């Protein structure tokens, strides 16, 4: 009986815990209604087009569908409203999403922005005020995960550098901000950074400062080493001269003292010369270390119990991409880390190996076509450069919209059939 009661109690607790998990946003782009949920900004009329696509290679034709940038060298701006405005003062804020740079990205953003209630989705651009910006950003050698907080009208960047992957696979990014003002960032479920907001951002004036009135005491010893008083110059130490007259030299026969002046042998280095002697250094027994002014409480310091707290009502992508093709998916905003973990297991970890296999298969197909094309177009006059160009054309990194069908599209259609997609585009 006791056991049963305990079990029921446990069950109820589980239900309560479950009921407490709040999901403010969950988007997997797996239905055709996504366009109703997302608003493209109108701030300029040449923004890049987002489409929903599972990717050239993918784990699952349905589950892998995500929001993809489809045009090169474009700005992108799109946003969506959360189911309700979040106030994360007293609860965790969890932001999680996947990014797949299947185009082989050279330069482009891959981050989300959490936006306040006064946000205007029609006017969304780089200047729109945001609460938090989070996610990968790649441009040439810059490959980092951004975490930027808005604080007192300034955007403050995390002081730690966190690298991000630049491969063509799907990766999972998660940010957790806790009410005790700690944060954690994980990549593919591996913790890559954590700490206190106040330590890892320049948000507040420092709590303590060096006492400006302090002066170094006269008798402070900050020489770490001194000459050894015991050390004596060895008897046979030769500390001069460095040069001696060459004993081998002799006055030339045709030397005329009157015309040439008196003859002197040339100077050569003294073979016995040891250089100047100095006693060896030993550590100074009186050394106190470098002097530093003592810390005193900073009179300008103000604590901010709301450093971590925002009202968030929208999520958006405001990006620049040179080579397009990035797929964003599985976007989740919740107050429950465990729920985020379950969601990640279901939508990301379940598909990771399948995606690896799909990529392998895709690479094999591309290689096959390259080889066949190589045979067909073989021609003695082809230069190596031409060959390279043909190979590149045979495998562009991304399917472009409104392109004339060509052999390549046939290849992809064929590939998609093999994986069971027919009508995504
Ligand atoms: C994708 O999902 C829809 C709705 O759940 C289903 O009808 C369709 O058959 C699925 N397609 C594939 C390729 O799995
Ligand atoms: C902050 O809160 C989280 C979640 O409750 C906890 O895991 C962590 O240990 C806390 N950290 C500090 C420094 O209090
Ligand atoms: C290859 O080069 C030869 C001689 O340079 C030329 O006669 C021939 O037309 C070229 N073939 C092609 C396909 O360009």
TrEMBL record:
SUPFAM superfamilies, per database record: Concanavalin A-like lectins/glucanases, P-domain of calnexin/calreticulin
Acidic residues bias locations: 372-393
GO CC annotations on file: endoplasmic reticulum lumen; endoplasmic reticulum membrane
Originating species: Paraglomus occultum
Protein family per UniProt: Belongs to the calreticulin family.
Cleavable signal peptide: 1-21
KW Cell wall biogenesis/degradation (keyword) present: no
Subcellular locations according to the entry: Endoplasmic reticulum lumen
InterPro entries reported for this sequence: Calret/calnex (IPR001580), Calret/calnex_CS (IPR018124), Calreticulin (IPR009169), Calreticulin/calnexin_P_dom_sf (IPR009033), ConA-like_dom_sf (IPR013320)
Disulfide-bonded cysteines: 107-139
Family matches, as PROSITE patterns: CALRETICULIN_1, CALRETICULIN_2, CALRETICULIN_REPEAT
Residues the record lists as binding an alpha-D-glucoside: 111, 113, 130, 137, 318
Protein name in UniProt: Calreticulin
Major place of residence: endoplasmic reticulum
Annotated segments matching region Disordered: 208-274, 371-406
Keywords in alphabetical order: Calcium, Chaperone, Disulfide bond, Endoplasmic reticulum, Lectin, Metal-binding, Repeat, Signal, Zinc
GO biological process: ERAD pathway; protein folding
GO molecular function: calcium ion binding; carbohydrate binding; unfolded protein binding
């Amino acid at each position: 009986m006791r056991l049963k009661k305990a079990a029921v109690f446990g069950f109820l607790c589980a239900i309560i815990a479950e009921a407490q998990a709040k999901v403010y946003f969950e988007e997997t782009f797996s239905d055709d209604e996504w366009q109703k949920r997302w608003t493209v900004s109108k701030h300029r009329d040449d923004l890049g087009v987002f489409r929903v696509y599972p990717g050239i290679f993918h784990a699952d034709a349905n589950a892998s569908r995500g929001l993809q940038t489809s045009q090169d060298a474009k700005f992108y701006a799109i946003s969506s409203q959360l189911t309700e405005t979040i106030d994360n003062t007293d609860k965790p804020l969890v932001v999680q999403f996947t990014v797949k740079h299947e185009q082989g990205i050279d330069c482009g953003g891959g981050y989300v922005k959490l936006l306040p209630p006064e946000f205007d989705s029609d006017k969304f651009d780089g200047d729109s005020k945001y609460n938090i910006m989070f996610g990968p950003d790649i441009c040439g050698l810059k490959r980092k995960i951004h975490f930027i907080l808005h604080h007192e009208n300034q955007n403050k960047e995390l002081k730690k550098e966190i690298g991000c992957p630049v491969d063509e696979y799907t990766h999972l990014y998660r940010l957790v901000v806790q009410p005790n003002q700690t944060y954690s960032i994980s990549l593919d479920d591996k913790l890559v950074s954590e700490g206190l907001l106040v330590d890892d951002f320049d948000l507040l004036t420092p709590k303590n400062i060096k006492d400006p009135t302090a002066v170094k005491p006269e008798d402070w010893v900050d020489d770490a080493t001194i000459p050894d008083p015991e050390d004596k110059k060895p008897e046979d130490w030769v500390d001069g001269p460095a040069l001696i007259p060459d004993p081998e030299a002799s006055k030339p026969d045709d030397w005329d003292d009157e015309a040439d002046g008196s003859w002197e042998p040339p100077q050569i280095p003294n073979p016995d010369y040891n250089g100047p002697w100095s006693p060896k250094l030993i550590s100074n027994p009186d050394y106190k270390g470098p002097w530093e002014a003592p810390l005193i409480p900073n009179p300008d310091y103000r604590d901010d119990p709301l450093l971590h707290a925002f009202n968030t009502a929208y999520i958006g992508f405001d990006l620049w991409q040179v080579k397009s093709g990035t797929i964003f998916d599985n976007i989740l905003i919740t107050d429950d880390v465990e729920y985020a973990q379950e969601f990640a297991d279901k939508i990301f970890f379940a598909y990771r190996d399948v995606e690896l296999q799909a990529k392998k298969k895709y690479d094999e197909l591309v290689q096959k076509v390259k080889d066949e094309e190589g045979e067909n177009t073989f021609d003695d006059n082809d230069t190596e450069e031409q060959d390279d160009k043909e190979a590149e054309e045979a495998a562009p990194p991304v399917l472009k919209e409104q392109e004339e069908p060509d052999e390549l599209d046939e290849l992809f259609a064929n590939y998609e059939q093999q994986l069971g997609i027919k009508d995504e585009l």
